[in-house]
Write a structure and sequence with these properties.
By secondary structure, the protein is of the alpha/beta class. 24% of the residues lie in helices and 38% in strands.
């Protein structure tokens, strides 16, 4: 099973909201997922995302690949440690 960590679009028309989910790469974008590991709101001001870095690291150890957009969110979370990322480090 090819596991991916990617964004799942939620929200309404012209008001996107994304969940960061771990899913089988063959599932549809709005299909089922294994675990929700965060969220991202591109239209919000200030803190606009939250990630469970420990769970992302766990899934990466199991072989999960991150999408490019999730990879950039993880980089932002690690660069600015604050309330954006929940980590057990």
């Amino acid at each position: 099973m090819a596991v991916r960590i990617r964004l799942r679009r939620m929200g309404r028309k012209n008001r996107p909201f994304y969940r960061v989910v771990v899913t089988d790469a063959r599932n549809a974008v709005k299909g089922k997922y294994l675990e929700m590991v965060g969220w991202y709101d591109p239209l919000a001001e200030g803190t606009n995302f939250s990630l469970k870095l420990d769970r992302i690291q766990y899934w990466q150890a199991k072989g999960a690949q991150m999408s490019e957009s999730v990879r950039s969110l993880v980089r932002r979370a690690r660069r600015t440690p604050s309330d954006n990322a929940q980590s057990t480090e």
